[in-house]
């Protein structure tokens, strides 16, 4: 074991102790693997030879929103809102411009931010991986929040611990992002549609057997509200579809540090102004279990029935990816 690796892991354990002292209540710091800290200690003591998994966890932060303010917002006439009307003159002609007032914040209200953290083995000499998420933020403000956080962490020198600093930055700066997502100014009779990228990713793995991995894949898929499937066995195939940032976060999250034989074989993207529901080929994210061939011994070395898988793809109008995934041309059932 190299001294640099040992030093990094020791520093990570030290920072985790600090975090648990800062957030002592149950559920505030949730480890993805509850045994990871024990395994790292055993590795440092020399009683474990294999490199332990990365430390991955979520910290739940309660952020107090800024003091309530009153904002004037422009609307078109004929609105169903309860409004005050003011007489105005436009282009030398009398007209009515309608305004309404929103009390944007409750002075005592709090919002929740879940900070997802992954410590690479060489952290703090390698960049920390963080992602902040809140159900109270729209997609644009959440993206800006994470860009601001990443930019701030870029000011740290290699070797500096920065999770605690990231938490302090969120506590000091996140309120403005919640403010911006509630400011309303709508001068036209209809809001301009927002374009989003709908993405579908086809992921190939040498195999997917482990129960904890299968559980994590399903949990992450449902948490991010993506649709698709995970075919377990050998090979393992994952299809995930939804808004681009959700799919990319799914891809980033499921890749274990020791999951080497996995790759994204194919992607399909479409610009949409709606929710993307009409673009989905699947209606939920579920595990796909097919018949298998081969040895059911201790090695679990068996292959999934690719014929059944092809029929499944045809049912969901996706048979075109069969050749991409396996390099085998699918034969039409009509021939």
What is the percentage of strand-forming residues?
Answer: 25-35%
**CATH architecture field of the largest domain:** Roll
Cα-atom Rg, whole angstroms?
25 Å
Q: List segments where confidence is low: pLDDT < 50 over at least 5 consecutive residues.
A: 68-107, 183-189
Helicity, as a percent range: 25-40%
Oligomer: single chain
How would you characterize the largest beta sheet?
Answer: 5 strands, mixed
Number of DSSP E strands: 14
Q: Number of folding domains?
A: 2
Write up this protein.
The chain is of the alpha+beta class and 335 residues long. The chain has two domains: 5-66 and 109-180, Ubiquitin Conjugating Enzyme; 196-326, Alpha-Beta Plaits, CATH 3.30.70.100. Helices cover 30% and strands 29% of the residues. It has helices at 3-22, 36-45, 139-153, 163-173, 175-180, 211-223, 244-254, 306-315, 321-326, and strands at 29-31, 55-64, 70-75, 84-90, 93-103, 110-119, 129-133, 196-205, 227-231, 236-243, 262-272, 285-288, 292-294, 302-304. Strand 4 (84-90) and strand 5 (93-103) form a beta hairpin. The longest helix has 20 residues, at 3-22. 17% of the residues are buried.
């Amino acid at each position: 074991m190299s001294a640099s690796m040992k030093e990094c892991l020791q520093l990570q354990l030290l920072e985790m102790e600090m975090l648990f002292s800062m957030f002592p209540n149950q559920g505030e710091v949730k480890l993805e693997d509850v045994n990871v800290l024990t395994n790292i200690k055993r590795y440092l003591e020399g009683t474990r030879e294999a490199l332990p998994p990365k430390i991955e966890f979520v910290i739940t932060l309660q952020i107090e929103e800024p003091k309530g303010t009153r904002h004037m917002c422009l609307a078109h006439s004929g609105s169903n809102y309860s409004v005050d009307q003011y007489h105005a003159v436009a282009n030398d002609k009398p007209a009515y411009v309608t305004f309404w007032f929103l009390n944007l914040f409750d002075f005592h209200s709090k919002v929740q931010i879940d900070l997802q953290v992954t410590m690479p083995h060489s952290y703090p000499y390698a960049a920390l991986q963080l992602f902040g998420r809140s159900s109270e933020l729209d997609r644009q403000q959440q993206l800006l929040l994470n860009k601001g956080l990443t930019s701030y962490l870029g000011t740290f020198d290699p070797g500096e611990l920065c999770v605690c600093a990231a938490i302090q930055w969120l506590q000091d700066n996140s309120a403005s992002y919640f403010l911006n997502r509630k400011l309303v100014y709508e001068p036209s009779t209809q809001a301009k549609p927002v374009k989003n990228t709908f993405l579908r990713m086809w992921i190939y793995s040498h195999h997917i057997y482990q129960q904890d991995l299968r559980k994590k894949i399903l949990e992450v898929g449902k948490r991010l509200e993506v649709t698709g499937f995970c075919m377990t066995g050998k090979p393992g195939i994952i299809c995930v579809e939804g808004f681009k940032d959700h799919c990319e976060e799914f891809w980033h999250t499921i890749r274990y540090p020791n999951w080497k034989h996995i790759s994204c074989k194919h992607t399909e993207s479409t610009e949409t102004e709606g929710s993307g529901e009409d673009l989905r080929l699947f209606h939920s994210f579920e595990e796909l279990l097919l018949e298998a061939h081969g040895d059911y011994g201790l090695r679990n070395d068996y292959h999934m029935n690719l014929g059944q898988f092809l029929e499944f793809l045809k049912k969901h109008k996706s048979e075109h990816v069969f050749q991409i995934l396996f390099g085998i041309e699918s034969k039409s059932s009509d021939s």
